[in-house]
Amino acid sequence: MIRTQEKELAQLAESWGVDYQVIKVKSDLIQAIKDYCLKKKSVNANLPPSYLACLKTAYRKSLPAR
Questions:
Q1: Number of other CB atoms surrounding residue 37 within 10 Å
Q2: d(CA 8, CA 14)
Q3: DSSP letters along 8-40, please?
Q4: CA-CA distances (angstroms) from residue 1 to 4, 32, 41, 61?
Q5: pLDDT tens track for 5-64
Q6: Is the pLDDT of residue 1 over 70?
Q7: How many CB atoms lie within 10 A of CB 54?
């Protein structure tokens, strides 16, 4: 399944004229945020503020340490 997703991302990058690594990094970040939010059980359609807070936290944790 992973190889299929990577092929789809590569095809998408090629069709858009974008470097594959740019799309790969962004998709990995999005997946990491989703995984983090699911782990914290903050994803709930009825609670968008908690979801946004979860996204902010996940984003901050994804940044390199200063």
A1: 19
A2: 10
A3: HHHHHHHHHT--HHHHHHHHHHHHHHHHHHHHT
A4: 5, 17, 25, 27
A5: 788 878 888 888 888 887 777 777 777 877 777 777 655 444 456 666 776 777 777 766
A6: no
A7: 22
Burial label for 7, CB within 10 Å (0-12, 13-18, 19+), is: exposed
Gap between the Cα atoms of 38 and 57, Å rounded: 13
**The tokens of 36 are what?**
């983090």
pTM of the model: 0.42
Length of the chain as a residue count = 66
Q: Which two tokens stand for residue 30?
A: 């999005």
